[in-house]
Hints:
The protein is mainly α. It is built from seven helices and no strands.
Amino acid sequence: xxxxxxxxxxxxxxxxxxxxxxxxxxxxxxxxxxxxxxxxxxxxxxxxxxxxxxxxxxxxxxxxxxxxxxxxxxxxxxxxxxxxxxxxxxxxxxxxxxxxxxxxxxxxxxxxxxxxxxxxxxxxxxxxxxxxxxxxxxxxxxxxxxxxxxxxxxxxxxxxxxxxxxxxxxxxxxxxxxx
Length: 179
């Protein structure tokens, strides 16, 4: 009876570990989709409206620190911090604020180096010299992030094809050792 319980625990542990890993991979894709969607909405707002960046960020977060959505996302926290630091007006330019805030939250984003680099450079789409320059830079950033999104999806799909069978095979081998 103890062997059966041990085998079930091993299988459950491996399956749980694989499931947790797949959820982390999906959350990374969701964060990237959220950033792309935010950039698309920003580009649309820049094309249709003449609005200051601080006012634009205030649409997504209130300045008193309360998030507008029920679940606080990393993007919302970062935008709030950027808006707060821009309001303090102690930085030489907005791009330095953007980079500093995202560097502080780097581990929470869990992006690879290339994707995170695109995210850091995308701040130029908010703090350029002209609205046209900002729109052009945001378009380029969106295209680069969409390419990165495809790479991430392909990589995750390939890793899933390898790690799920390997993990389950490893669990079966451990069960055989218990027998």
